Amino acid sequence: MVIIPTYNEAENIKPIVARVRESVPDAHILVADDNSPDGTGKVADELAAEDDHVKVLHRKGKEGLGAAYLAGFRWGIEHGYGVLVEMDADGSHQPEELPRLLTALKGADLVIGSRWVPGGRIVNWPKSREFISRGGSTYSRLLLDVPIRDMTAGYRAFRKETLEGIGMDEVASQGYCFQIDLAWRAIKAGFHVIEVPVTFIERERGESKMSRDIVTEAAWRVMSWGVGSRVNKVLGRKDAKES
């Protein structure tokens, strides 16, 4: 199941769903809409009425990317899906690359579509945005002592067992931090995480949800996790995320 969280993506949701359906015809799609005022939920309902591979999860309001994905994961697991995929609605994640992630998942527990491994790239980003993304991944990798190059990547394929094993009920982070949180949890739980190269293309329609608050939250939480982990190791205690 490909989970696509939406908030004011009425212009984007129809073409992205069509591309997913063409790229992986057997995949089902869950549009998790946060009660978008622009009518995204209605467009999604129309798509679902025409195609039994499309489902819609209507949420009460805008609660953030992390909360939308967690709700989507739970819905998918409850309905028997064994593989769950994160994908943006704005076209930045290329559905045509989804088969690469799914093929890699045959030998892994979590596959991350990475911009910062050989073969990965970005299109139409200003240097300032690239600096934030690269810097955020490097900062997280060093503080948390993990080998992942693109910690903030949002194009991912999970096995159901991975999501069940990382303590989803304890996750409260959002945005960039949500992606870092889940990747770190997976590694600390002993799951096999790999990266495959993808091309990330900046959205052409609609507005980015990125904000200073999202970046600040990520920096603060990662610092807290990293310091806490090192203190626990010195004291011989298990990390909170392992308990």
From TrEMBL:
Instruction: Provide this UniProt record's keywords sorted from A to Z.
Output: Glycosyltransferase, Transferase
Q: Show the InterPro entries listed in the entry.
A: DPM1-like (IPR039528), Glyco_trans_2-like (IPR001173), Nucleotide-diphossugar_trans (IPR029044)
**Top-level lineage group:** Bacteria
The record, for Pfam families, names: Glycos_transf_2
Residue ranges annotated for the Glycosyltransferase 2-like domain, each copy included: 2-165
Q: Is NADP included in the keywords of this UniProt record?
A: no
Tagged with keyword Cell membrane? no
**Record-stated family:** Belongs to the glycosyltransferase 2 family.
Q: What is this protein called?
A: Polyprenol monophosphomannose synthase
